[in-house]
Amino acid sequence: MPDEINPMADMGLIHDKQTILEPQGFLTDCDTVRDLCERFIPQGGKFYDLIDRYGIVTSYVLNRDDQGRGADTVRMVAPFLKAFGATDYDVMRFYQEHLTTAGSAKETIKYFIDVMPTFMDSSMYEHATDALCDKLEIPRGMASSTSLDLSDDACGMTRQECWDLRTMAKEIVELKMPRDKYELDVPLELSSAETRMISALDDIFLNRLSGTAAADMISNTVSVGANEKAYALLDIRKSTQVDLDGTIYVGGDIIDYQVMDLVKDGNGLSLSFNGSEFAVHGANVAVLSKDCTVVAVLAAEFYSTGIQGVFDLVDNWNRDYLKNADCPDRNLMDRMLALNPRKLPEVYRITRGNVGDVAAKSNAFRKRWMYRKKN
C-alpha cells in the first residue's frame, strides 16, 4: 500500500529503517565452523582453511557457476564431521559450552531489536545459531542459518565410507596452503601451489565422492551463501516495505560482499565490522573494534539522520567531537566512550582512495581477533 494512502504510515506507526546482520564475526568473536572442525578433525583448523580457500578461489577467482559463491565450505566439511564421530548432540553441546560472544553483544543486539526490525542471516550451522540466541536471550525466529543433520538416518554413511573420508581428510591437511592474493572476480593465472591444491580437492569432491552418501549429504545441506543473502535482503525488503536507503547491513565475511554492495548502492548503511578484504570493498563504512557498541552508535545516527549523518559523524571521529556532539542517543554515545577510555574504535568512511589500505588493515585485525588462541 503506498504511503500516501496508508493510515499506519500517516500516524507514524510503521518503520522506515531496518537492520540485517551476519552475527559471525560481529556478535561472535570466532569462526564457528572452523572451531568445530578443530574440535572433531585432526588438524581441523588447517583442514577448514584449505577447503575454505578452495571454495573461495573456485567461486570468486575461477567463477565456477556450480559453486555457491563462498557458501560451500560449511557444506563440504559436513560429511567429514560425521566421519570423525560428531553427532547433533555433540555439536549442540560444543556450541553451548564454547561459543563466545563479542564485547557488549547482548546490549547491542537488544538495542537494535528495540529500535527497528532486526534480522540475522547467518552462514553458521543451526546448532551455533541456537546457542547464540540462547546466550543473547533473543528470539530464535529472527535468525536464519545453515541446516545440518548429523543423524545416521539423514547421513546414511557406511563404516567404509567414514574410513575413506578420514583418509581423505589426512590427504587434505598434507597439502600446502597457497598464499597468493586475488582481486574480486578478476580472472588470472593461478600459481602452481594453488593449482595443485585445487586439483587435489577437485579429485576428492568431484570424482572420489561422486555417488556416495557424503556427496548426498553435501547436496542436502542447505547453506546460507552470498546468493542466499542477496535473496533474503530482497525478501525482507518486500516484507517490511523498507527500502535500501533505510537498511543497515552489518557483515564481515567474503560472502557478505554481494549483499553489502547492494545496500551501499542503495544509499543504505553497509557496515563492515572487522571485515575481510572483500567485505570492506562492499562497505561504505568500516569499523575495527573488539566491542559492538560502536555499531549501535552508528546505527542510532543512521536511524535519525540517514547515511549522510553517518558520514558526517565518521568524518569527525575524535573524542572531543564525540563528547560534545548533538547525537540522537547521548547515553549510548557516552557508554561507547567509557568502554574505550584510551583509544576509540577505528571507524572509516570507505572511498576509492582508501579502500585498499582499510581493507588490508581490517583483514589483519579480523585474523588476530577471530583466530586467536582462546583459553
TrEMBL record:
InterPro entries registered for this protein in UniProt: HAD-like_sf (IPR036412), HAD_sf (IPR023214)
Domain of life: Archaea
Protein name: Uncharacterized protein conserved in archaea
Species annotation: Methanomethylophilus alvi (strain Mx1201)
